[in-house]
């Protein structure tokens, strides 16, 4: 397995109600914690590095959110399989989806979820625990 391919979560915080506009879409987001789900099948480390930077050409929905939010944590999950949809469905059990955000190339309604602070550790713990013991049906 290539450790630099896989899926990831980014935990972000918005301090104020914020309008995110990509030009084509708009979302009004409430203050709070958000988990963004993504995949990087070419370079996981470069993708996360990009999400941490503020100065960049905007390409993905998260780029527009990133300029108005603060990254609190990132969780990288190496895999040769593209598991973004499965991970997104798993995270959706813990948070409220932001419909249409970051999921244009996936069969899920969103890749961004507003989540209560108390649930963050539960989500991260469940994912790490299951990832250690995973097989091909990790998120079932």
List the helices and strands and how they pair.
Blueprint: E1 6-14, E2 18-21, E3 26-29, E4 32-40, H1 44-52, H2 61-66, E5 70-78, H3 84-92, E6 96-97, E7 112-115, H4 117-132
List the keywords:
alpha+beta, 140 residues, five-stranded antiparallel sheet
Order of helices and strands: EEEEHHEHEEH
Strand share of the residues? 25-35%
Q: State the total count of DSSP E strands.
A: 7
Mean pLDDT: 90
**Main beta sheet, described?**
5 strands, antiparallel
Distance between the termini: 22 Å
Strand order of the largest sheet: 5-1-4-7-6
Q: What's the helical proportion of residues?
A: 25-40%
Q: How large, in whole angstroms, is the Cα Rg?
A: 14 Å
Shape summary: globular
- As for the number of domains, it is 1
Contiguous helical run count: 4
Q: Low-confidence runs (pLDDT<50, min 5 residues)?
A: none
The secondary structure category is: alpha+beta
Describe the structure.
With 140 residues, this protein is α+β, with helices and mostly antiparallel strands. The strands form two sheets. The protein has a five-stranded antiparallel sheet with strand order 5-1-4-7-6. The protein has one domain. The protein is built from four helices and seven strands; from the N terminus they run E-E-E-E-H-H-E-H-E-E-H. The protein starts with 5 loop residues before the first strand and ends in an 8-residue tail after the last helix. It is 29% helix and 29% strand.
């Amino acid at each position: 397995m290539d450790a630099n391919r896989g899926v990831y979560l980014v935990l972000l915080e918005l301090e104020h109600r914020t309008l995110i506009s990509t030009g084509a879409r708009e979302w009004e987001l409430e203050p709070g914690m958000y988990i963004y789900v993504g995949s990087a099948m070419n370079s996981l480390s470069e993708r996360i590095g990009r999400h941490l930077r503020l100065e960049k050409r905007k390409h993905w929905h998260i780029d527009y959110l990133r300029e108005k939010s603060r990254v609190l944590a990132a969780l990288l999950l190496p895999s040769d399989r593209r598991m973004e949809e499965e991970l997104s469905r798993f995270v959706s059990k813990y948070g409220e989806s932001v419909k249409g955000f970051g999921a244009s190339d996936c069969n899920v309604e969103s890749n961004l979820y507003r989540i209560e602070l108390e649930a963050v550790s539960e989500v991260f713990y469940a994912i790490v625990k299951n990832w250690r013991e995973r097989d091909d049906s990790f998120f079932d």
